[in-house]
Amino acid sequence: MLTTRKNTRKNRGGLSFGVLGKICRHHKRTPMRRLFFSLLLFASFGLGTSWVFISYRGGDPLELIRQQVNQLTNKQAISPTSASQLASGDKDSIKSGPLELIDPNEIESHEPTAEAKQAIADEPPLIIESSKMGTPTKTISNSDGSKTVIVAEGQIDQQEIDRIAGLQTLVSKPSDLQITDETGKYALLSGVLKSYLNARLRWSNEISALREVVIKDAGPIGWSGLYAGSYTIDRSGDIIEAYGWITINTHYFKDSPYFTDYVKLVFAHEYGHHYTQYYKWVAADLDAGSRFPNSYYEARSVPKDGIMVNCSKSWVDCDSEIIAEDYSYLYSGYGYHAMRSEHGLPGELAMKNWLDNIAANIIENSQDSLAPSVIITSPPAGIELSGTVKLAASAEDDKAVSRVNFFINDSLVSSVTASPYQTTVDTTRFDNGSYLIRAVAYDTNDSTADVSIAVSIKNSLVAAQVDDEIPVVAFTKPNGDSYNWIDGNLILEAIASDNTGVVKIEIYINGNLSATSNAMIIARRWKFITSPAGEYLVTAKAYDVLGNVGETSIKIIKS
Predict the structure, then answer these.
(1) pLDDT score at 20
(2) Interhelix angle 259-278/319-331, nearest 10 degrees
(3) Hey, what CATH topology would domain 472-558 get?
(4) Which of 10, 51, 112, 284 could bridge to 116 as Cys pair (CB 3.0-4.6 Å)?
(5) Sign of the dihedral through C-alpha 97, 103, 107, 113
(6) What pLDDT is recorded for position 469?
(7) Which pTM does this prediction carry?
(8) What pLDDT sits at residue 51?
(9) Are 63 and 33 in contact (CB under 8 A)?
């Protein structure tokens, strides 16, 4: 039989070579067993433990060696405590050597292959063209006076709403997520998505409000992913809680060799909804019918005009969908953005900073609780006007007034961006008759207040005076004499004023006419990806009713 004793020396080299030699000679006619001993000897160098001396005294050495190895390897198995120490970088639990400890997230970086990225670029996942993200699906009045609002991209039934409302989940990190595979085909997908969220996507406190991710083959129903959410408004108007859930429809890519990549990308977009809607609702108290704050549009370099709070215009012009795609583009790893051709790509530094700090950014820039106030101070109501007259208003806001626009009926006369809010208008531009003079004040979040007075215009039929005063025009975005364009789309905005009224503004780039607006304000988006690097001279020209022209220029340096 074999007997063992403790090795009193700290021998980490393995079994006694002499003893192994005797054992091998004993089994010289069994080459398979000699191979086993050789492998055992080789493996022994990798076991970080003290071995034993083994002396041969007869019996079946192979079986006894097996038993001894099992005892030793079981004894040296990493315990849960030591495993956590390894993960946290506790070097005391392992001897130092040429190998460095690895963050577990480095092992699963979820970096997509070039082939997967190309496949997705060639055939993107199907989107919901009729998304209703900005429109409440259902509003429920509760017994305590609060209201619960359900919002979803697509159609959801009451049974689904009730089921999700009844879920009791405790989620503080991605590994806690409840992911339900209704197909029964993708046992590993739950772990993949949890690891992907943890390693690649941006998440924080909002993860506690994601109640479920459902994987299902919903058939050819027109979408690959769907986000639905619910928030409760108390009697004072505060949004006090919110939660959401995600559904992924595998139907359109279930046979693709890049199935997992498609699932990840769809999940990234839908989690982008959850991430941004949660803070919009809970942190900023902005309901489904409210836009994201101005700071988002500034960070995104996309003009607010033309972007809708819902998808009544189109999916690509809904701010909730654009920001979800921004999130997916910046964090998913696939480099895909569904609105790239319409709105360009988000600037990585500015947009990532806004999303990384969304809770603070969205609160600091959310809608004011108070709208501005405005009164017209000149002319007095009911007066008869002739010739050139002054229009003036007084405006206030709890934060700041951004501008006051003056109208005669529906014709914009002037936009004044600083106090005193006043301008002049030549009434001979208008036919004699009754009119409304209107002043509209805007705060920094585009909340408005307006006031109007009734007046009449009566001018004698004489030749109009010669006007030699040229319009004044200035760039408001960007401003200054030059601008270094590093990344992201660029907003060009110019505003003009004139004593007789501005009828047109034009924008020229290096002498070439690029845009025209028959108003006092012009705003255009300049796409980063389609513009070569270099210096550009951008000029704005403003025209008054008599053809006088004023202009200003700014140098744009694109890197």
Answers:
(1) 40
(2) 130
(3) Immunoglobulin-like (2.60.40)
(4) 112
(5) negative
(6) 87
(7) 0.52
(8) 38
(9) no
CA distance 436 to 456: 8
User: Residue 475 and residue 480: Cα distance in Å, rounded?
Assistant: 8
| pLDDT value at residue 81 | 34
The CA angle 111-243-275, to the nearest 5 degrees, is 35
Which DSSP helix (H) or strand (E) runs through 492? strand 490-497
**Cα 52 to Cα 76: distance, rounded to the nearest angstrom:** 14
Q: Are 448 and 554 in contact (CB under 8 A)?
A: no
Sequence-distant (6+) residues with CB within 8 A of 544 are 467, 469, 470, 471, 498, 499, 500, 501, 502, 503
pLDDT recorded at residue 284 = 86
Q: How many C-alpha atoms does 11 have within 13 Å on its Cβ side?
A: 13
Q: Supply 14's token pair.
A: 């393995």
Question: Cα–Cα distances in Å, from 471 out to 406, 542, 552?
Answer: 17, 6, 11
Top-tier CATH class for 373-457? mainly beta
Cβ-defined contacts of 235-238 (< 8 Å, 24+): 235/144, 235/145, 235/146, 237/285, 238/285
**Residue ranges for the chain with pLDDT beneath 70:** 1-109, 127-137, 312-313, 364-370, 444-446, 461-466
- Pair of tokens at residue 119: 């496949």
Task: Fill in the amino acid letter for 81.
Answer: T
Q: What is the DSSP string of 514-551?
A: EEEESSSEEEEEE-STTS-SEEEEEEEEEEETT--EEE
pLDDT value of residue 446: 66
d(CA 368, CA 354): 19
Per the DSSP assignment, residues forming a β-bridge with 239 are 233
> Residues of CATH 2.60.40.10 domain(s) within the chain?
373-457, 472-558
* Contact between residue 225 and residue 83 where contact means Cβ atoms under 8 Å apart: no
In the block, tokens 């009730």 appear at 162
